[in-house]
Structures are given as structure tokens and as C-alpha cells.
Amino acid sequence: MSFRYLGDADGLTVQDVEAAAAEYGVEITDYREVEIVRLLGSGVAREDYDENGKLIEEYREKDYYKNFISASGFSKATGMEVQAEPGTYLYINRKNNTENYWFLPEDLDMAENTDTGVMKDLVFAGFVEYSSFFYGRGQDGDACYILNDEDFAELKEGLSKEFQMTQVLFNVSDAGDTYAFSRELYAKYCNSVSDSMRVMASYDEYRADVDEDYGYGEPAVLYPEHPEIEVDWKYSPVFVPLLERSFVLTYATLLLIFIFVSVICLVSAGVIGYTRSITVAVKSKRVLMDVKKLGAGQEYLNRILEEQLQKVFVLPTAAAVILMFVYYTLTLWQNDGVLTANEYPMIIFNAGVCAALSVCQYILYRCSLKKASRVAFGRRAEE
Q: Cys-Cys with 26: which of 21, 63, 69, 282 at CB 3.0–4.6 Å?
């Protein structure tokens, strides 16, 4: 369980959290607060391609406001002992997250306190895995870094409350109504945030000032009483019971719709294939009988009919299965330029669906062939 608030927000205190938990019989454990500063960091923009199809890299001394934690603060909050040498930083990553074309952790080489003008050169020193400090996609304005304590203090000095952030982390017991508690806490959290926190997930203060036609400047609309409504919100809290329930409701609905549509499409394809098979048999009956009178054996006639029906089933099925598998795999790859470990099971599942569809089409083909043989020859064709 985790939520964040900027220094200019009212925020929720530990007493607020514990009072809400007590109302629903939930026990709060391991409550922690972590101090984070938001500094203007450098970076590399990779947004366009040149005429040769190569990705253009544009270094920006001022890129996005990024998140920084002191080494001691991170160690205290997580129980993981980390050290950052002066002038270096560690990038906070998530397990199984992979690099992509658009963002590299080592792109950062400078951070600036925009209130005092203090700037510090920085050098990438490695990774630390901890998912609670991995925001969104973990890149650009969502990126989070660990600084040496002295560097952190130097850059924080004189920083306005608007760019100081506190992240609260805690665990809850299995006892009590954790879902109701999460709903209550979500409503209180939404009502406690400042206007500066009601922004879209991709919003960044610096980019909003310098980019023409900036597309993320609209305020985020919050629904405190309806956490099931998905909101594009930069400071959306992570309340696990809510996320689990929303996941089930959202994806179960989408899955049912998908299954319903896919069954209709599959049945339609089957009806069309079966009807076409009978049509082929009716139109071919006279020709086949003439060939039989010329001395052709039943095995030869069966093979001719089979070849006719295979054109109805094999080519459409093969084309559909191959296109579906290739398109889905390319979609996963195109999202970030890589295939992650979490996406491989999805590819395997897709391959299984393709195989199941192929089996269904084969069964339909055999049934259609038997019926077509009776139509064409007046009896079951010999196998």
C-alpha cells in the first residue's frame, strides 16, 4: 500500500490512516514515510527518425522534473542497504523491467534545483530494484533515482514545498475488510490532495512551459467515491485491494465481451465454410459422376472432392492463424521495442489459441467432407 503527496497538499497523517483502518478492523503494520525531491534533470529525447529510419537522439540539459531519494532514506524505508558515492546516482528499477528504445537510465547526467539554481553533475552508478518507487513506466518524469546523502541535502536546500514530496508505505493485515478500508482511504486521499497534484499521468511542469501544443495540461478529474473508475492521474495511489478488485471487474468484463464476439465470429466462419462445402459438392456432383463413368475409382474421386474442400478451409485458416499470431507478437514488441519476460506467457497463450482454432477448423472440415461426400456420391465416401 502506498500513496504520495506534495508539500503543498494537506496529505493524510498516520492518525488518519490508522483511524480508517480501525473502523474496518484492519491492522496497519510497517508504516513508513519517505522524503523525495523533484529536481529538473537532463535527458535524451528519442522521438523522431531520420530519413534513413534511424532514431534521432537529442540531448537535453533540461528534460523533465525527476524524483530523487537519499541513500539513507531509501535504506531506512526498504531495509536494503544501498550506498551512492558523491556525484553518482542509482536508478530504481522494477523486477523484470527491460530497457527500451526511448529511455535509458544513464541518460541523466545533471540535476538542478530550479528554485535556487544549484546544479550538480551526476554519473550513473547502477540499478536498485524496488517496485514501490517505480512510478508508471519508470521513465522521463516518472523516473526515480537514489542520491548520495550530501548531494541530496545540497540540492534540496531552498527547494519550495511544491517540489518536495512524501511517499507513504505500509502493509495491512489479512483480517478485517481491507477492500472497504481501501475505498475509504482512497476517498480521503483524493479529497486531501492539492490542485498541483490533480494532473494527468504524463504531465510535467517544465515540458508544459516549453513545449508547444502540450497535450497533457488538462487537470485530472478524480472520483473519490468511485475508485473503480480508471483515472489518468500522476499521483494515483497504490491500494492493492482496490487494484485487485478493479482488475477482476475490468478484465473479466472485457474477457466476456471478447469471448462472446469470438464465438460469434467462429460460428459464422463455420457456417460459411460448411455452406460453401455443400455448395461445392452440389456443383461438382455431375462432373464427378461423369469422371466416374469414364472409369475413375472412388479413391480418386474422394481425393478430388477433398482438394476442393481444402481450398475452403486450409487457406483461410492458415492465413488467419498466422496473421493473428504475428500481429499480436508485433503489437507486444512495438509497445516498447522489446519482448519482456511477462509477455512470453502471453505469446505462448496466443499460440495455444491459434492451435485450438486450427483443431476446431479441422474438425469442421472433416464433418463437412463427410456431408459433402454423401451429397456428391449418395453415400459416405470410403476413407
A: 21
